[in-house]
Structures
1.
Amino acid sequence: MNTPPNAPNTPDSSHTRIPLAQLEALLAQVFERHGTSAQVAAALAQNCALAQRDGADSHGVFRIPGYLSTLASGWVNGHAVPQVEDVAPGYVAVDAGNGFAQPALDAARSLLLEKARRNGIALLAIRNSHHFAALWLDVEPLAREGLVALAFVNSMACVVPSGGHRALFGTNPIAFAAPRAGGEPLVFDLATSAIAHGDVQIAARAGHTLPEGYGVDRHGQPTCDPAAILDGGALLPFGGYKGSALSMMVELLAAALTGGNFSFDFDWSQHPGAKTPWTGELLIAIDPAKGAGHNFAQRSEALVQAMRGAGQARQPGDRRYAERALADQLGVAVGVQELASLRALAGIV
Ligand code: NDP
Ligand code: PYC
């Protein structure tokens, strides 16, 4: 919400820049100091630092207070050791043990890759997991391995289905990544709600209003006030019944298929401070080398050129790559206050 959609962030004096490795080490220290194992801390710190590097206002260091209050509430197991199950030639499952999804994905990634290459396609079904992060980081590395990848995560009931009268779906993002010859992988990553819940929080904090059609208040009346959405209101799907159908699909793939909770299944009311949805995640990895479309990466580059020719100058992922290029050169942009509180949380005086 704070960032023009087509331009990288331009940090002002309220921001500073820090090398990626330093940010990652700082975040790992914060996580470990607040109730995770070293392994979980490393996975979460890497994920969060990479999201911040790529300019994710709503899913970088902004999420740290939510992670920590969740750990303090006992809602999530910061020491969980994921159990990887080799279910079938094209199927890997992981029980994340009420831990975070990122260590579960780390534990299963090599088996998923091996199966996708052997069979042409493979699924990774993660259940009993908490995903509080940006989803493109789960698929982009697979595209860098030459695979086409899709990921689906459901979250917490805060989206009213099309025509409905109460929140049922999560903000349920879908991410896609595909290799591209001579360029960065093509990646998109989008919430199926009109706006991500994190961006509603950011808008409320900044005192901004939202466009019409994003949410309703506690009485079910349309509102542009983010605070009213957060205070007992709800979000709407993007694109009316079309986004609602995609959100339904995410519930089915990320929860019903994996054995995870639906977004409306869990009750965290006995864990004040809990923020991380206890759900599931599905990843699909496809080896395009097995398809009839030889030179898939060249075909995807041809498609990009055709889109440019048709007038679409900005591709999904472009903003994140531009942010990344700046961060690689100058360091990762972080709020000065945010960095100070991260240092305090890490016990650095
Ligand atoms: P955005 O609406 O910011 O962006 C959605 C996609 O559209 C991105 O791939 C973006 O590319 C692309 N895009 C944006 N503007 C344009 C444009 N003008 N032309 C072409 N492409 C464009 O994302 P959301 O707000 O929907 O989601 C934000 C994040 O929240 C995601 O990372 C998502 O995974 C995360 N999230 C996580 C949840 C969870 O349960 N873990 C739940 C909901 C959301 P670009 O990246 O280059 O801007
Ligand atoms: O921004 O909608 C969101 C979200 C939900 C869970 C993690 N992020």
2.
Amino acid sequence: MTPSFQSLEKIPRHVALIMDGNGRWAQERGLSRIEGHKEGAQSVRAVLRAAAKAGVEFITVYAFSTENWKRPPQEVEGLMKLLVSSLEAYEQELHDNQIRLRVMGQFDRLPLLVRKRLQKTLDATAHYTGHTFIIALSYGSRVEIAEAAKQIAVKVQAGELAAKDIDEQTVADHLYLPDVPDPELLIRTSGELRLSNFLLWQLSYAEFHITDTYWPDFREEQFFQALEAFNGRNRRYGGMEK
Ligand code: FPP
């Protein structure tokens, strides 16, 4: 049965996803880890389509963390290649649904080929305003916050900003994508209860949806279930129940 996104009362503007379990999915089938990541790339596509259907404006996926550089070189290389081929494969999907691609993370650390392929799609979709697909690549939240602190310190040193005027908004304004609203919903697959250095600042008030499903098995139906669960939550932002 196709899920009816229209039946949902509230649709989060921004959904962030920690795509975990590709390795275990592959292992259980006697496949290589990269096969798991490949199947996971199909899930990314399914979620993009479902999000556009549901009217979610922003989707952020954690594709490669700063810590992921420590994985075996073969896996890192496989993931980078997969990223390039996936961008190729998603391109039509992005145009059909008028989705803008953006990236967050240490862009300069990525291999030249990956940067070039990303830049091509970034430029080709830059004019779309309705939906945004954000890929966190070589991303680490602590690095992001430390970088923001550095930029603020430079401004203070240059006399452009007074230390007494630094507040939450100042920090938020110096993160990678200051114009993107904070995610209202975080989905993590494969049952782990960790944030893994993902959007620590931006997820302060997000609802969490943890599912045991491995990422390669997470498709439209599972995305719908996550939105349904979100609909059952009462968001209070630290205030009183209404
Ligand atoms: C975590 O699973 C997943 C990753 C580190 C990579 C996620 C990447 C993709 C889904 C590839 C395509 C992405 C895009 C945006 C094209 P894991 O390897 O840690 O799984 P495990 O915990 O079961 O070992």
